[in-house]
Target: 3-oxoacyl-[acyl-carrier-protein] reductase
Amino acid sequence: MSRSVLVTGGNRGIGLAIAQAFADAGDKVAITYRSGEPPKGFLAVKCDITESEQVEQAYKEIEEKQGPVEVLVANAGVTRDQLLLRMSEEDFTSVLETNLTGTFRVVKAAAKKMLRARKGRIILISSVVGLLGSAGQANYAASKAGLVGFARSLARELGSRNITVNVVAPGFVDTDMTRVLTDEQRKTIVGQVPLGRYAQPEEVAASVRFLASDEAAYITGAVIPVDGGLGMGH
Model:
């Protein structure tokens, strides 16, 4: 059955792989993007999730063109890495504003219609960094850890309406963002991963699609690591 799916930040990397996985399965897929040219094949809606009005407008357009969102994947996020003593307050708050508060906005908008329909799937994209920590990423780690508490609270709040809320926590994924690292940096990272390699975006997408499937109907409040064993024990 074709569902209305929204993937925020679905124009590249992990988000694009997730959007493609749903489209390949026959779902109607909308993506949000902030800048540049969006990929073809999806309902692309320009939206900055730090702006409530833009989020509201994006949902109106999506609902008009493909129906109320039945599966939400909150993937949009930013980094502003810096050591604590060099990190400005704006460095800290801007990352939380996008990664955590922005996710709150898009989830709240989707949940309104899901509650009426008495069904829905919400999947938040966190990070192994939110569980493990990472020097120079206190802002990013805090925002991604916050998603876990947010998701688990909503899992309890929305579960009686047949809405599941889960988290996927990728490790190091082979995307444009990680390809800018030097060979030495990549080697150091891979050395920490028990499986000894980066993840492919499609591997993260497969876990997201599973959580949105009928087979995962009894899974909620879970944190699914796709990290090659890097964050095990958290």
